[in-house]
């Protein structure tokens, strides 16, 4: 017998169908709630509200499970390349050798950005935050590829352009902020070495990609690739549900990711750890400040999560990678020890344990990015490069599922009807 949920309101009973996903997540289908009862639901921050049915990413916040299209994040991070994972997320299956070669070569041949985009780029102040530049230039791509919003575009072509050009655009900001010449992509380099070369090569000397750095970045980008209906992904889906083009939708996602409570946390974490170091490394003081957040206004960035209430499986992998990468690179970063001390102190403090506040994906990632030579204000850009295939996959699924335009309701709490008072009488 199909399950249903019974609701009694104002003395009347109503029945709503329930549904269960492939991993046994359960939901009430309340599509007819307002028509039947005149009521809407209220769920600030959507903690209890499913916006869609999706076959892309499964996560279990209690068990610390994360899978892309059924493959565990642990398997993918240790055995796959970032472009293999990108193909998997977007097209639903791991690519065959032939599909992979076509995909990689298509991306390779679209890494150049239209030179006219430089004029937009050059209009920014040199110290513009790279996330602002990235979101603006990705949005501008819809002007350079107008078929993206004229309905007759080839979505796969736009997907290739986004994956291919984001690293190029991202490195422009960094090089310009240093007053260095920007680098062009090289077709003889793979995806991540190409990004590193554009980031760090200088015309005055040969740049050699360190395989340790390239491998660490491959893991980090895979770990960031998708995370079901998080804030920025929900933004991409909502914007795309109005039939806005893919570039505008992804640009909106970049803007949402920038927020310090979301992807912007990785930059905040390093700045917080540096503050603790400058303040003598007294982690207890900052734990106390976080516990009195209501008076201090201080949050322990990199801790807590909307969904993970046990541990963030990505944080576990990144923490181990941080040790490995710093040892291989011979980097001794005192901030790593402070981070471990902070984690240790927090995980033994009732305030954090009761609120299930554990390190999230952003807590250790910045330490690795810094060891790889990536500047702090580029950390969230790295998150965006990693999350791009997830945003694309979710946008594509939303369109293929023909999702209706997203339009939540509200409970109005403002003034009730009142007469207009002419200016001379006010
Ligand atoms: C990402 O959704 C995703 O999947 C996101 C992401 C992805 O891959 O897309 O995983 C990436 O965004 C990771 C999160 C990065 N953000 C941070 O590290 C910022 C610091 N963390 C918090 O601001 C907070 O934990 C959130 C926003 C991440 C989660 O907020 P919740 O679950 O809504 O928790 P809350 O704000 O309701 O807080 C619950 C309690 C509160 O205390 P009480 O009111 O119960 O007394 O926990 C406290 C909060 O004050 N709290 C913290 C805290 N986070 C929550 N106290 C100190 N430090 C913190 N970091």
From TrEMBL:
What the entry lists under PROSITE patterns is as follows: CITRATE_SYNTHASE
A molecular function (GO) held by this record is: citrate synthase activity
Q: Which SUPFAM superfamilies match?
A: Citrate synthase
State the UniProt keywords alphabetically. Answer: Acyltransferase, Transferase, Tricarboxylic acid cycle
Q: Which organism is it from?
A: Spirosoma sordidisoli
Q: In which pathway does it act?
A: Carbohydrate metabolism; tricarboxylic acid cycle; isocitrate from oxaloacetate: step 1/2
A GO term (biological process) for this protein?
Answer: tricarboxylic acid cycle
Give the protein's recorded name: Citrate synthase
- Got a GO cellular component term for this one? cytoplasm
